Amino acid sequence: MRREWSIARRLFFAHALFIVVLTVFVGTAFFVDARDRGYVETSNRMLAVATAIADSPLVLAASESADPSSTLQPYALELTRDAGLDFITIMAPDRTRWTHPTQAEIGKNYIGAIEPARSGTAFTETSTGTLGPSVRAVVPVTDAGGVVRALVAVGTTTSNITIALNARLPSVLGLALGLLASGAVVTWLLGRYLRRVTLGWGPEHLAQLFVYYDSVLHSVREGLVLVDPHGDLVLYNDQAATLLGIPARPATGSDERPLTLTALSLPPSLGELLRSGRTAQDEIHVTDSRVLVVSQEPAVASSIPMRGAKPTPMGFVATIRDHTDLQNLGSELQSMKTLSDALRAQTHEHSNRLHTIVSLMELGRTEQALEFATKDLELSQRLADEMVGSVDEPVISALIMGKSAQANELGITLIVTASGTLAESGLSIQDLVTVLGNLVDNALDAAAAGADPRRVSVSVSSTERAVTIEVADSGAGVAPEAIDDVLRLGFSTKGGGVTDTGVTAPGRSVGGRGLGLALVRQAVTRLGGTLTIGRREGAVFTVVIPAAHQPEVDHV
Questions:
Q1: What residue ranges define each of the domains in the chain, with the CATH number in brackets?
Q2: 3-class secondary structure for 380-402?
Q3: Span 238-260, mean pLDDT?
Q4: For residue 256, what is the DSSP state?
Q5: Which of 200, 206, 308, 333 has the smallest number of CB atoms closer than 10 Å to its CB?
Q6: Over the stretch 261-271, which tens digit does the pLDDT of each residue have?
Q7: Mean of the per-residue pLDDT values for the chain?
């Protein structure tokens, strides 16, 4: 199976090839420039020397003598040696040499162009003569009348120029090697960085993974949130947007900037969890309308193909599950458990009374047994009549009867008053059970922890506009500074699970404590009601929920 090259490897080889090509190009250009400049500098030097010789009075005077060579040859040889030249040829206008480095060439014709100089114009050229290819300058020697009396050719062979250029090769090679080395280091560092951030994967694999992961985000039924180390919400699916009440994720390829957690209206506990990046397992967080179970883990690359690389979190992944319906079922189950406990308590109490009646009859005290049974029946019937008469909703009546039995078992006096008709309020029985049941449970716990006499009073009133529920207890009450905290998830007056301030530490799993009042606040907020906390003998919780009347149906 052919292994796919990673982005880092592809970029490394592409960049390395570019650096090699660039180095060859720059080195060649530098060498060609140095060569051209060498020829130009040599031509200028030859022209300067030839012009200086042509301006010498000695050359003009010798050109008018009968034997110019006898005077000019020693002069040319000495000047050639002192100036480091290869030849100085002084000739007549008809090309006849008067001087030459080789004595045998004197008197012969000069090889090369002289026409511009014969016309009075100095020039330079690269030409091949008796000494081989050379760079030379030819300058006319003129008298006072401007007549060309002689020509001076000064030159140096190209082999000497090449030797001079070769002396510059180390600098050219040094520049090329420096460019190649620096480019290689930059390429290596860039490749290492890309290998780390892409986990050594190729572009095709990354594109495939992106398509798969994007499909997974849309297909899972749980909310999925990805938060980077800076606290920005970089990725989330549609279910997470629904559960958190945030804008839907933009389409793939959008350049919209990530959302900042601090700019979102999240519950404080949930916002703190996502910002902290700490590991969490099935933590409960309550919003205004939902009960969310959140788990969070760091996003760490499980297999980085780099030896010695230490995995570091690239962000954090949180899964969010909606447990609102499950919590409602739990509340109903708790109500059923309350009724079950009430039946168990009544069964236990009824068993004791039945044993008492049987014992009286065995002792022959029939009248006392009959009187005891009659009074017990009247008491039970009166309690049932009071509950049913005070609250017209059967489920609420059953709930209050269960709480009454529970209070009796705890040695707490439960006083219930009701007015109006709950059945016509249009409110959901499940919501009323959640609100009333949790408030009474909280009041019973507070009263049980308080001093005698221990009492809990429940008042339920219903009008055309609203349903008002008031639950008061004889407990210690709620401190004024704790009123804002008492409805927050995790607050509990029960032992274990509260901090020194009476509030569960942020992010700690609540473990079932402090959830009841948070659910009450959630239900009341969802129904558009209000919840206030006051104080009389103990704490007083007052809930006002607007009535939700059903629309009237016209009968034809």
A1: 7-166 (3.30.450.20), 223-302+311-322 (3.30.450.20), 326-546 (3.30.565.10)
A2: HHHHHHHHHHHCCCHHHHHHHHH
A3: 69
A4: P
A5: 308
A6: 777 777 777 87
A7: 75
